[in-house]
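Letters spell out the chain; the tokens describe the backbone. To illustrate:

===
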Amino acid sequence: MEEMEEELKCPVCGSFYREPIILPCSHNLCQACARNILVQTPESESPQSRRASGSGVSDYDYLDLDKMSLYSEADSGYGSYGGFASAPTTPCQKSPNGVRVFPPAMPPPPTHLSPALAPVPRNSCITCPQCHRSLILDDRGLRGFPKNRVLEGVIDRYQQSKAAALKCQLCEKAPKEATVMCEQCDVFYCDPCRLRCHPPRGPLAKHRLVPPAQGRVSRRLSPRKVSTCTDHELENHSMYCVQCKMPVCYQCLEEGKHSSHEVKALGAMWKLHKNQLSQALNGLSDRAKEAKEFLVQLRNMVQQIQENSVEFEACLVAQCDALIDALNRRKAQLLARVNKEHEHKLKVVRDQISHCTVKLRQTTGLMEYCLEVIKENDPSGFLQISDALIRRVHLTEDQWGKGTLTPRMTTDFDLSLDNSPLLQSIHQLDFVQVKASSPVPATPILQLEECCTHNNSATLSWKQPPLSTVPADGYILELDDGSGGQFREVYVGKETMCTVDGLHFNSTYNARVKAFNKTGVSPYSKTLVLQTSEGCNFETQSAPYSQLVDIKKLLAVAWFAFDPGSAHSDIIFSNDNLTVTCSSYDDRVVLGKTGFSKGVHYWELTIDRYDNHPDPAFGVARMDVMKDVMLGKDDKAWAITEGGITKGATIGVLLDLNRKTLTFFINDEQQGPIAFENVEGMFFPAVSLNRNVQVTLHTGLPVPDFYSSRASIA
């Protein structure tokens, strides 16, 4: 149960939820905390003014994050304020849980009403502290959000299970431990108080006294609260709208709010969603069981590595001690190699244990929370959170996917010492990689007719010599850094062809390959020299060759598409991977297939579809950027989430790695000054969007004329 505690705490105050409400994004907040983080928006952005102007938007319309000035450059990458003239300028504070808390624009008037009934400032806005989505409140204020009674019930049970022994409720000073509970009086008694206040005679003789633990359970099993409609507070929920995914009352149906929607019985949908969550939990439970067994395996591996290391060192010392004094210096070198291998194996296994333990703790906490939610008897309350929980369970199960529960290191030390050579060969003494000796593979041959470069990618192909009789288990491809530096491994595997992406434009690389098997590795092949493109693709350009040469003198251009291999699984590709959208309501990241490390590069993206929930983000990112959050939420991406864009808008991205700057354009107009400076390293074009957005990528474009002129002057 302890792992579940984080699921029960408010992200603002860090304490257990008190009167939790459910935001439209499925996250929860304490009612008091929700009131504390309200901010006031301009009159022009209120739902009332939008309805008056005729724009058909929802009362809970998500706002652009940058409009609200909610994030700095360190948070989202591009935090310039470009929206409201009357936006709040009061610096934000931080709650005990590390979440920004914005004070209201005006002090609330004194009131004697409860937090739920007290009026909120006109045109108030609230931002979810977990997913950072913003929405404007309607006239109902916080009363428009449903209460999460299921979460309240889970918290009550959790706190009761953690509480100390039940105390007598009638002791005047130091309460003693209760010994019984009267079911009719609903009071816990110690023995003295029971004899004094509840004698077993008269009408009290018919009361039923039970042990305190049993009395606690009977309190939990009290009839569930009846759920009422947020729009019609006197009506109970009786049906469930499948399209809106929310319980409704009969009056909502009579008013025609869901006339064209599919509506089903509340009890049937309650049972259906409980069954779906239970089925999802079965799969996650199997993963958790496998993870526990895997952790046991990893801990056993630590012991095996320790034992094998001790055994191997003892054998090595015995062999070296049998040799003459000339071997002593070599013996120390060999021991050092064994110790290094020992530490490497331990480090890999311990790191995997630590990583797997954290993931298992998170998985167990989610499972326990879901099991407690399933115990709830409130259909509407359950249905309000079941979809989000089912998605979280499936996502967590996917994180235990292929390769997660496979050891990254073996326990064996595949080394043996050959002490048979003569004394004059002692200086050649070294480890062999396996205990059984067999021939190494022959040197691979690079197939020059199949090796080529395209843009900043290189494709290499090789094969074994025709008369080779020793099979190869795999191959190791190495490239230098493009500047004549040291070689580094770029591919290890069984394939005989490999494409390397993300190289520097207009650079010369040296490539070589070698084969390996259990015995050892072959000599290197002959070195192949590769020249990457200067940037222009003359075969696909429609302009005359002379014009291409002029552009090339200024800047190099690259042709590329989106990369399905590195994108989030929810991204949907079309138009030869130039157009993307998403199957999820959450933000998902997709990268371009070409990376840039030097030069000046410009590309554009057009908005094919945009439903204002929420704004997409455009920019650049490193290859290991997080793919399941909005672009710019980690330190691996630099992006703009510009408000005011509409369907048909064009966003331009200018990456100048010569000057180490990043600039953005909307409809050919530069957005403010340079967005980011000191941009260094390898960057990929990047976009984050959800199912409400579709964009198309345009590449091979020249840099805007005014920027080219400014760059040449500089």
